[in-house]
Amino acid sequence: MTPAGLAPGEALFGDGESPAMTGSPLGPGRMRDIASVVLNDCSFVVSSMSLLDRHRRVFVPAIENLPDPAELARFDPQYHLDAGGGLILDNDFIRRAERIDAIAAPVCGGGFNDYRHFLCDGLPGILLHRQVFPDIDLTIVGPALAPWQEDILAALNLLDRYRPVSGPVVFAKVLTTTMLALHAAYPTGFVRPIFDVLRFRFGGSGCRPTRKVFLSRAGTDTHCPLRNRAEVEARLAAIGFDIIRPASLTLREQVRLMGEARVVVGESGPAMAGLGFCQPGTLVLEIQPDACVDGATRAMCCLFAHRWHLYLARVTPEDASFAIDCDRLSAAVATVALSPEGNEAS
Length: 346
Hints:
The protein is α/β, with parallel strands linked by helices. The protein has helices at residues 72-75, 91-96, 115-120, 122-132, 147-155, 192-202, 229-238, 251-259, 296-303, 326-336; strands at residues 12-14, 36-45, 50-52, 79-81, 87-89, 98-106, 138-142, 162-164, 169-177, 211-215, 242-244, 261-267, 283-289, 307-313, 315-316, 321-322. Strand 2 and strand 3 form a beta hairpin.
């Protein structure tokens, strides 16, 4: 099954089968209009990054990563289900909630802890609101930040506006957008300001990009783990790839590294968001397990003018893992690494 626009042996490789979600040139094909939203007397439930308006109605775009809003009751103790299966906010939340007279903007939706979602979901809306409404005293809210999240907000000059929340809160107003939870999975051009500002902030060498980079997911939890990772990384290192674990780099190092990359190979996942820091025309080979659907990288490559290629790997149903034939992968990389002019990318 060949995704639309990809030619076997030229842009499509591997032994897996294409999930239907990769069939569109823009990945899942869910690019959509974005709305700016104001919620008055808004309850902010930080444990799930969910929002409710003054009538206790859940703002679905904040939790759109859940198939059904009722699933909040499964993992967020602030919610439970009534006798009819309807979602109810716990009365104790309403009783204990601190009322804050501020205009708040959630830093993210349900993907708060994910690098790609943190960059692509809430932050584009915040940055745009700051530009369109510079006189509004906007308070950015969310849980306590991890160091990497602090680095991102500091680089965007937003950290001094951040207010960590730990308990029940009702804000006078919440100013947010409909791209609060799944914008990273179905990105639009609204992600560009975040990556453009960070690239401009940290700059680069100014030289023609030449590096070949493999973005390793070693040491991270994945739904479909790569069984022969050590063999794959050794083979790629032998043909000139730098094996990079993005989580070990500072934000400045990530931005500059990706700006120097001519060829990027990596598994589907959060680290591929770093393609937003690459120079246009970067050659990309995404390794996608055929049981772990993800169209985000393809959409990102479209938005940032990269040349996207796909290596589909067949997942073993028994343990949801996959292995890669290194000879087949090397042949795919050799094809991808040819520039449009036919000269190998060194």
